[in-house]
Amino acid sequence: KVLEGNVGYLRIDSIPDQEVLSQLGGFLVTHVWRQLMGSSALVLDLRHCTGGHVSSIPYLVSYLHPGGTVLHVDTIYNRPSNTTTELWTLPQVLGERYSADKDMVVLTSGHTRGVAEDIVYILKQMGRAIVVGERTKGSALELQKLRIGHSDFFLTLPVSRSLGPLGGGSQTWEGSGVLPCVGTPAEQALEKALGILTLRRALPQIIQRLEEALKNYYTLVSRVPALLHLLANMDFSAIVSEEDLVAKLNADLQAVSEDPRLLVRAIMPRENSPKPEPGANEQLGTLPAVPEDEAARQALVKSE
Question: Where is the stretch described as Disordered (predicted)?
Answer without folding.
Answer: 269-290
